[in-house]
Amino acid sequence: MSKSKKKLIALAAAAVPVAAVGAAGAVTAVMMKKNFNRGTYPEKNRSTHYWYDPDYIAKHPRLNVEFESGKNTLQGYIYGLENENPKALLVFAHGIGVGHEMYINSLMWFVERGYLLFTYDATGSCTSDGSGTIGLVQSALDLDSALTYAEHCERFEGLPVVLLGHSWGGYAVGAVQNFNHSLTAACTISGYADPLEMLELGAEITTQKPGFVKSMHPFIWGYNKAMFGPNSALNAVDGINRSNVPTLIMHGELDAYVDYRKVSILSRKEQITNPNVEYCTLTGPYANHEDIWRSEKANDYLKAFREKIDDLKKTHSGEALEQALDEAYAAADKTVTNEPNAEMLGQVDAFYSHILESA
């Protein structure tokens, strides 16, 4: 074999791993872009949710504000303006793929108990800017920006600040404590502890190929590092330990999305050194990732309603299906479907109130 042929073969052999690395990087980029696309609200006529407009607009005034988070402008919302002497400023961070109004009934529950509420739609979510939600660390950076805005807002001056977050926002409540903010208390619900661990678990759920995801670890790590740089390893447990802020950690024992046993903040109990932390494992037939926000009555009703919708999709098609679905959603009893989990919310309020009274 000639020297020139040997050289070509060597070059080709060297190119194989380079090409493989490039392909793996491309696959990771596509997978992450798909997972972190824009969060949107469902169509109101195909939803059993309450919305601010028309369900609360007459009872609870709202002030719309804007603030910057990185390169994006986020839409913020202040509720509870009718409370002349609010007990605290409650700052809320929502889960990924949606916006704050998906929690509107629970948020108004707190407003009706005397809180001034500041919330927002996060980067790439619903009413805020951003082509996508970027990644699992982004929620903590957005909450950091929201708290910075609140600290410079005259309306909030002198109020103790308490945090509440779910899932993506639950992680944010812990992770933002790595930054320097004056906080009185915090509650994280269904939050993950480590963004990279959650990222890989999410990839496993999406692909159903844990071996493949394990082989992609360097590329997933690289994506997270490229997106968030020095904040890529921002950890919720580290934040909770660093701040010593009184923090209530809640998680449903049936949660398989932010897995209760594998990646939840609550599963890291042995690593938590903050002496002011309380833990609550939510139990019962609906102790999963989403249903924990609703009463058992609401969840029972919704279970039957979803079965009805599934039956309609099996027995109807075309225009007949569309009409049947419109009628079913219009007939749904929203006073039942929007009944919040008052027991869970009451535990959160009692935790805040105890800390506020002791402060």
Whole-number radius of gyration? 23 Å
Percent of residues in beta strands? 5-15%
Mean pLDDT: 92
Structural class: alpha/beta
Report the strand count: 8
Percentage of residues in helical conformation: 40-55%
Q: Give the SSE order as H and E letters.
A: HHEEEHEHEHEHHHHEEHHHH
The number of helical segments is 13
Spatial arrangement of strands, main beta sheet: 1-2-4-3-5-6-7-8
- Poorly predicted tracts of residues: 16-21
Mass-distribution shape:
globular
- Main pleated-sheet profile: 8 strands, mixed
Measured between the Cα atoms of the first and last residue, the distance is: 83 Å
Compact overview of the structure:
The protein has 359 residues and is an alpha/beta fold. The chain has 13 helices and eight strands.
Features:
single chain, 359 residues, alpha/beta, 8-stranded mixed β-sheet
Structure, explained:
An eight-stranded mixed beta sheet has the order 1-2-4-3-5-6-7-8, with helices on both faces. It has helices at 3-35, 52-56, 104-111, 138-151, 168-175, 195-207, 210-215, 217-228, 236-243, 296-315, 318-331, 334-337, 342-358, and strands at 62-69, 72-79, 89-93, 116-120, 161-166, 185-189, 247-252, 277-282. Helices cover 45% and strands 14% of the residues. It contains 13 helices and eight strands. The protein starts with a helix and ends with a helix. The longest helix has 33 residues, at 3-35. α5 (168-175) runs parallel beside α9 (236-243). The protein is globular and about 55 Å long. The chain is an alpha/beta fold.
